């Protein structure tokens, strides 16, 4: 996937099984009156308490401090500023009245993870829940597209469909690939980034990135692979990338990084195949005025 007039051609050698893993999306709401210190698995429901603690604006369980209007309607502290201090139900001024009784109820119960609709079945004491949600394995992923800033989040099947429909990213099946990156004037490239392809293999998806930036004063290109999933699954795979011509070859072998790490994080860590502009032009042949760089690669599952 190119930008600023960039063109690439690809020849794919595919093989291996593929598919899409999706999380269980059947979640159930629950609250439990309890004083446990750790997470529990499984869910019960108490719709009356749930409705009592649900903010009328964001429809989420309210976090203390909980504010109320003179008529007793409650709202969470986050949404209080959004409604400009006016009760969304009766339009009375909210002021700074706190509902201490409801705050004590909120602090005495266990709550489901807010990602229960994506498959998380654990429930937590009020304050532990917030810490868990920051690292919950079921939380959504940020869109991994690197060509433009995109704020879309979701599970992997949703993001795969989003990348195809909204970013026109190519999809290929198989664990081996060849890309030919072509740029008429390589000296125009300044901090450019592309997501070339998403690969389906071994039942997972992998994103191939190609970036141009300066490493110190030297202009370089970098190719790397990211895994569409969490780091623990990414670590089960390895990949290799290579470029070459004229009997020479430059090769990289590494472990794909999870899309939990942004493409900028991976680039700044230099965790990929780095090619200086001079070497890239040497591999391109000819008069060195046009970049014609073939990037070949392979993905495989490590034996456990």
UniProtKB/TrEMBL annotation:
GO terms for molecular function: ubiquitin protein ligase activity; zinc ion binding. Keywords: Metal-binding, Transferase, Ubl conjugation pathway, Zinc, Zinc-finger. Pathway: Protein modification; protein ubiquitination. GO terms for biological process: protein ubiquitination; ubiquitin-dependent protein catabolic process. Its EC number is 2.3.2.27. It catalyses: S-ubiquitinyl-[E2 ubiquitin-conjugating enzyme]-L-cysteine + [acceptor protein]-L-lysine = [E2 ubiquitin-conjugating enzyme]-L-cysteine + N(6)-ubiquitinyl-[acceptor protein]-L-lysine. Residues 55-91 form the RING-type domain. SUPFAM superfamilies: RING/U-box, TRAF domain-like. It is an enzyme of class 2 (transferase). It holds the Pfam family Sina_RING. Residues 108-168 form the SIAH-type domain. One of its GO terms (cellular component) is cytoplasm. The keyword Cytoplasm does not apply. PROSITE patterns: ZF_RING_2, ZF_SIAH. Belongs to the SINA (Seven in absentia) family. This is RING-type E3 ubiquitin transferase.
């Amino acid at each position: 996937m190119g930008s600023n007039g960039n063109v690439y051609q690809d020849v794919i050698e595919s093989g291996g099984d593929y598919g899409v893993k999706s999380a269980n999306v059947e979640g159930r709401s629950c609250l439990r009156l309890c004083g446990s210190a750790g997470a529990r698995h499984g869910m019960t429901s108490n719709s009356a308490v749930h409705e009592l603690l649900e903010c009328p604006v964001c429809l989420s369980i309210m976090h203390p401090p909980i504010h109320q209007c003179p008529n007793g309607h409650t709202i969470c502290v986050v949404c209080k500023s959004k409604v400009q201090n006016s009760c969304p139900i009766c339009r009375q001024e909210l002021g700074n009245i706190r509902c201490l009784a409801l705050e004590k109820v909120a602090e005495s119960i266990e709550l489901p993870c807010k990602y229960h609709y994506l498959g998380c079945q654990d429930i937590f004491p009020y304050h532990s829940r917030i810490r868990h949600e920051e690292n919950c394995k079921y939380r959504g992923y940020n869109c991994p597209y690197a060509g433009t800033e995109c704020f879309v989040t979701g599970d992997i099947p949703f993001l795969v469909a989003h990348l195809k429909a909204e970013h026109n990213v190519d999809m290929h099946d198989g664990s081996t690939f060849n890309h030919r990156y072509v740029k008429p004037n390589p000296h125009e490239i300044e901090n450019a980034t592309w997501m070339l392809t998403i690969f389906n293999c071994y039942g997972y998806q992998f994103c191939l990135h190609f970036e141009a930036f300066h490493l110190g004063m030297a202009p370089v290109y970098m190719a790397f692979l990211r895994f569409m999933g969490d780091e623990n699954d990414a670590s089960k795979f390895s990949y290799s990338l290579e470029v070459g011509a004229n009997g020479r070859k430059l090769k990289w072998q590494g472990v794909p990084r999870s899309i939990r790490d942004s493409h900028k994080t991976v680039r700044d860590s230099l965790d990929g195949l780095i090619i200086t502009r001079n070497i890239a032009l040497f591999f391109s042949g000819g008069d060195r005025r046009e970049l014609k760089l073939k990037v070949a690669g392979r993905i495989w599952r490590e034996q456990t």
